[in-house]
User: Fold GHKL domain-containing protein from Faecalibacterium intestinale.
Amino acid sequence: MNEEFWRWYMYGHWVCLTQWLGFIMVEYAYLGKGKVKHPLVWSGVITMLTMTLSVVHNYGFFTPMAVALTLLFLFITVMLFGGTPGQKFTACLINGTMCLLVENSMRYVISWILKCELQQVIQRADCLIIIAVANMVVGAAVAFLVGKWRRRNALEPLQALTMSFFPGVVVVLNILLMLTDNNKRATMATMGMTVGLTVAVMVHLCIVAMFNDQVMQRRSLYFQAELEQQRASALLDSYTAQRRLTHEFTNHISALRALLEQGDVAGAQNYIAGVDKAVAASTTIMDTHNPLLDSILTRKYEEATRQGVSVYFDLCDLRNFPLSGVDMVTVLANLLDNAICAAAQAYPPEVYVRVRKTGEEYLLSVRNRVQRDVELPPDGQLPRTTRKEPGHGMGLSNVRDVLLRHGAEYTLSCRDNWFRFTCAVPTDNS
Assistant:
């Protein structure tokens, strides 16, 4: 084997390496960390093992065996990261589409420009370098976009699966193109079809993004209306309490005047203490220096009290709490609703809410008793729906979306009849 062959052989494996690194970047950006510790390190180990296997057995490039090896690598590495089975399948589909579109488009374009056969394209070291660079650039770009999509995704699993049908068809067509006609030159028609499929997928993704934005906008409007209702209810409660206190103010003054005229100072002091308790019970219970948050927590406390649930708060100064407006209502109202609903079915019915500021983040913890331990997703993520789990089936999808959008990390656990949700919200999530 001459030096030229070894150069071609090395560059060919560089194409494979950049392709696999692109897979790993997309999987990490889209799925995040799972239960496996150090997934990127293990992915690197699997990459080296796969590379060694390819070199030892000389599987070549753009062959059925090479495609099979790449698919095996893809399905093994995706298991190292988080996400649901549906999300893992979507990540594989994204990577497969990206890989095939990039390499096929580059092969056909280069073949058409150089007027050479498709097989000759992958036999030229300079062409392989171009494909390797394209793999890295496109892989990094796709990883950035899917990471952003992960934070803004508002589609239900069935909707996302339907949207992936067209890219799936494109993957099949590109596999057929890769494995056929390698001994022919690319014509204007075949080159146009390959590039056209790439453009069609890009247009399709733009349409999906527009649809996703519309779903997010509708959801935002819904929770904006809920927020306004919360504010209006809190204002009405305050107004009603103020009117009652104002109406009773004259009677309180008369009673105090009578006690003082009789020289009963101790009685007047006891009367004032009783009035203080009545005023405190009729006004906002919380004082976190965040009026809207105080209103939300006060209303949930009152709702819990009516259901016989004891709620205990351990809060810090929350005037600069990073969640505001609609997002604050979405997260806290849903978490407390679920916690109170579940605790009402347990004994003793208790809910603990704690917020602490540590460094550059706020730690929020909501812990409640449950009648029995509930089964949680194996990846430790918030499910889009948990209606099979008593007391934790409403609003978790919306909570998940808000937290992802703010770059917050969260965990949930359930053991010894205690359900705990904890999240860390960065103070600067711009």
Q: What stands out?
A: The CA atoms of residues 34 and 81 lie 4 Å apart. Confidence is low (pLDDT under 50) at residues 384-394. The longest helix spans residues 188-261. The chain has two domains: 3-221, 288-430.
